[in-house]
Structure to design on (125 residues):
């Protein structure tokens, strides 16, 4: 979740399920294959881990693995803009002079040769 917050420059609110074995119907309607003998009604089968993370990667609340809970945090929306200065994946790091995408709307030769001046050399087609 931290990676998503940092790369997206956004707040991440991750709500995850917490449940115990007793929250499911009794066997044989629903069986946890291979581990049913080890489970008690209080056994945790989904550990939760809900968390709130800021655009700078700071954990603001959670993660909670202890049980059902509500987590909350005050969000400073200005932090989104500040995070863009650190890692802006489509802004000032964009380098069209180095990498560009050209889409031709007509059939073309799969291999072409260019000279140092950048003009296509059509004699090799």
């Amino acid at each position: 979740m931290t990676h998503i917050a940092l790369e997206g420059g956004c707040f991440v609110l991750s709500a995850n399920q917490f449940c115990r074995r007793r929250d499911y119907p009794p066997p044989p309607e629903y069986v946890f294959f291979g581990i049913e003998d080890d489970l008690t009604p209080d056994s945790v089968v989904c550990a939760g881990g809900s968390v709130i993370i800021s655009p700078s990667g700071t954990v603001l609340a959670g993660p909670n693995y202890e049980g059902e809970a509500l987590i909350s945090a005050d969000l400073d929306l200005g932090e989104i803009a500040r995070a863009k200065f650190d890692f802006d994946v489509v802004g000032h790091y964009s380098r069209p002079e180095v990498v560009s995408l050209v889409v031709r709307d007509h059939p073309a030769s799969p291999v072409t040769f260019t000279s140092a001046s950048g003009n296509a050399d059509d004699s090799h087609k």
Observations:
- The two ends are 50 Å apart (CA to CA).
